Amino acid sequence: MGRTPPHPQVSQFDLQQVLEALVDPVRRSIVTRLVTSGEDLKCGAFDMPVSKSTATHHFKVLREAGLIRQYYVGTSRMNSLRRTEMDEAFPGLLDVLTRAVSAPS
Amino acid sequence: MGRTPPHPQVSQFDLQQVLEALVDPVRRSIVTRLVTSGEDLKCGAFDMPVSKSTATHHFKVLREAGLIRQYYVGTSRMNSLRRTEMDEAFPGLLDVLTRAVSAPS
């Protein structure tokens, strides 16, 4: 699959890079959506207040930080949360940030 | 104490603001130092690779996000981690970030 973009291994995960990815509200909303949906979603399934090229950039930043895995199904680029690997590298981080985001008041 | 700078209440804590404070490595190192020392520290006690005015700015960002409380003892500005309040607002966040920072390898 020459179209599958590169992904970092867990040993390459970097807290600074992960925080820089998650400090952006739009990118955090993508991760929260993947956490709450519990399934892989194509890029078009996210309702984002940004242009398509900006959205593509956001997915790329998340992928390069190790937060999501991207792969193709036909012409759709799918996004999968790398939950197990992120929990291995930074236990609790995803829980904390998605709980804080989705907590009612 | 007219010299005591303003501090947000817990109800005013904002995850976005807290993440923007903690995404900076120098500011994260200040918080980690306070976590590991377990006591209040004056600004001069932190070994930071930045100018004094930049350091003052970093402390201000942390204070305005609710991460630290600042007060004077004589001419020294002291810094206290607002651990209880931060844990109340965002349970686990400080644990996750300081554990990740201080973890061996």
Automatic annotation (TrEMBL), chains A, B:
A family per Pfam: HTH_20
Q: Where is the HTH arsR-type domain?
A: 7-101
> Which InterPro entries does the record associate with it?
ArsR-like_HTH (IPR011991), HTH_ArsR_DNA-bd_dom (IPR001845), WH-like_DNA-bd_sf (IPR036388), WH_DNA-bd_sf (IPR036390)
The domain of life for this entry's organism is Bacteria
The protein's matches in CDD domains, at most eight in alphabetical order, are given as: HTH_ARSR
Name of the protein in its database record: ArsR/SmtB family transcription factor
> What is the native source organism of this protein?
Nonomuraea purpurea
